[in-house]
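Reopening: structure tokens for the magnesium ion complex, inputs below.
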Amino acid sequence: MKIRMPAGARAVISSLQARGYEAYAVGGCVRDSVLSREPDDWDITTSASPSEVKEVFTRTVDTGLQHGTVTVLMGKDQYEVTTYRIDGEYEDGRHPKEVIFTASLKEDLKRRDFTINAMAYNDDEGLVDLFGGMSDLQRKLVRCVGEPTERFSEDALRILRAVRFSAQLGFGIHSDTADAVRKLAPTLSKISAERIAAELTKLLISPRPEYLYRAYELGITRVVLPEFDRMMEQKTGEAALHAAKRVRPVRALRFAAVLYPAGEQAAVSLLRRLKFDNDTIRTAARIIRHMDRQLCEDPAAVRQAVYEVGEDIFPLLLEVRSAYADEKTSQQIQRVQECYETICREGQCVSLKTLAVTGRDLIRLGCRPGPALGELLEAALHEVLDDPEKNTKEYLEAFAKGHLGI
Ligand code: ATP
Ligand code: MG
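Re-run output (same inputs, fresh job):
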């Protein structure tokens, strides 16, 4: 089997080989190439120690020396080059206590999570597939390398990764692996929020977010997303998965779609617990907050809604709402969407930012700074939301004078 590698990856491998070391592309890039999917990045595994790798290349970054990883810069690209290693005994199912370098590719492949992720490749030797990865790719199965219970006890994150890969690839989970997932799912509670969040995000932004249902059946969501189990009890979970599939694979959108039935508060506390960035949390929260608001198709009402919801959130809100909508509602949302597009195309004013008068203008006219000023600006904006033609300095100053009794 021949895999097409980027020139940079080939150069990294051949430079290491020229110095007498072994080197291979490994893991996700090999799996994705075999599946004719575009790999995100090309990881290299080598018999050279980190300091030996640094001697071979002029431009390197020490990314994870304690794990044996050196990043090699090649033109605009970068490659993580990791020394063959065995993970030492695991402490508390979280981190290997120590990393032991080894001279054997086989040992390095053996410590990897799933057979489909445990293949290596270079042009000279072709595919190195010691654990049946190729046959599992053909059978579309996620299966642990070695004894599943043992492997999940070493690192419980692998339990969630099994479902994440099955969602990304549309694969099943081998029965022995699934049995071990079910048995050990509760141990996911030992894993840090950041690692859980990264895998959960990959699952939800995959082409099959509805595979979250499998995580539910296997007892995983009970530990990492109990809100979803509550939704299943209340019969709202399936609609949420259906909706998640229909919004674009964007983190905040997918989480908003999945968590809408749980409510804004529950969603925010979950996303905080998973240590998401404030921007993602705020976006998801604002979408959920406005999911039940009434939407009218009248242009003035749409401008009012855009103002209240926020220009940044409004289009996202329409997206999640139409993902939840039945046919009739969906036609109505379509008409609101058309209204919204006209507002954008014509650059109609929907916020104080583009109002033709500013606070300063109103002060110049004699309005006192403070709450009265805010109220007057708001009143002027409402004139304009009602009728965009009124967004002129002339009209709004006259309007303000009327208010101020001048
Ligand atoms: P992606 O395309 O999502 O990056 P990937 O297969 O590259 O998929 P990574 O999480 O980047 O996944 O990990 C790279 C490789 O390292 C995996 O293919 C696997 O061989 C190994 N690996 C990663 N995490 C673990 C783990 N927790 N336990 C065992 N092996 C792992
Ligand atoms: Mg990767």
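Residues 327-345 form the longest helix (19 residues). The chain is about 55% helix and 10% strand. Marking as resolved unless the reporter disagrees.
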